[in-house]
Amino acid sequence: MVTYNRILMAVPHRYANEETVAHAITVAKTYNASLTLFGVVEEIEKEYENWLTTKLPQDLEKDMVVKQLAALEQQVAKLKADYANVDCAVSKGIPFVEIVKQVKQGGYDLLILDALSHKPGHKRFMGSTTKHVLRKCPCPVLCVRDNSTPRKVVAAVDVFASKPDSKSLNTKVMSHAYALAQRENAELHVVYAQQPIGEPMLSAWGIGSASMLDGMEADLMASAQSMLLKLTEDVCGSADGVILKALLGNPRDVLPLYVEDNQIDVMTMGTVCRTGIKGFLIGNTAESILSEVTCSVLALKPDGFESTVE
Fold first, then answer.
1. pTM, whole model, 2 decimals?
2. How far apart are CA 246 and CA 107, in angstroms?
3. What is the pLDDT of residues 152-167, one digit of tens each?
4. Given strand 110-114, what is the order of strands in its sheet?
């Protein structure tokens, strides 16, 4: 059963999107969880110090912290009229470091990032802070791109995962996607993308028949479809009403295309890392997919993931 007890929402210093805050309140209410609005004031870089004529950098940073905290406290005071279990905090430093530190120190089990584009022409949301947080944050991270009620949710899984931590990550991805779909009465899609075998690989194996290639890929896709069904039944109890899709193609290409073609609102996926390897980075494939999709994303780590941020 998926549940959240403590939720942290990272609030950008200049863009506290009220709709995303309202979205976070809705999630907190659903799980009767506490919600903390968290702001980070960045340290003033050395090259800018010569331009400061009225205040020392440390004094200016202190003023910025005070103003940020006052703004968040004012917002919290308004929110408490609707939901009492909300507070705020502000830190100073590198945003992604402070966010992850706050998650770890506060025992938060969900982080919400406002990933809406605030600048004209900026379609993608994989900025530096978001990318680093996704790599380092030990708890689930919900990157919000659209605050409307989700109607379609996709779970991106790896049905041929053989290692125990990878299998458990599949279950976690499915569980979170199913819980979200149930909560919002949304359509659930379960998708797996199979990298094509490719003729060079067949040649290396001593196999050169194009018809044999087609047959092998057809068998792989049939097996993947069967495993999608089993995973769905194991987690959801039944696959009734769930759309199962095995895609043939490079995951970096076919998953974003599937999201776009099917108007997916939220994609739930695991990040590729191994239990017990401290700070193992998000996999290149996962990062490429996240940089291309236009929907909201719920990104999950395997159990046992350790962040290098102390």
1. 0.85
2. 37
3. 999 999 888 777 777 8
4. 86-92, 34-41, 6-10, 110-114, 141-144, 296-300, 266-270, 152-156, 187-194, 243-248
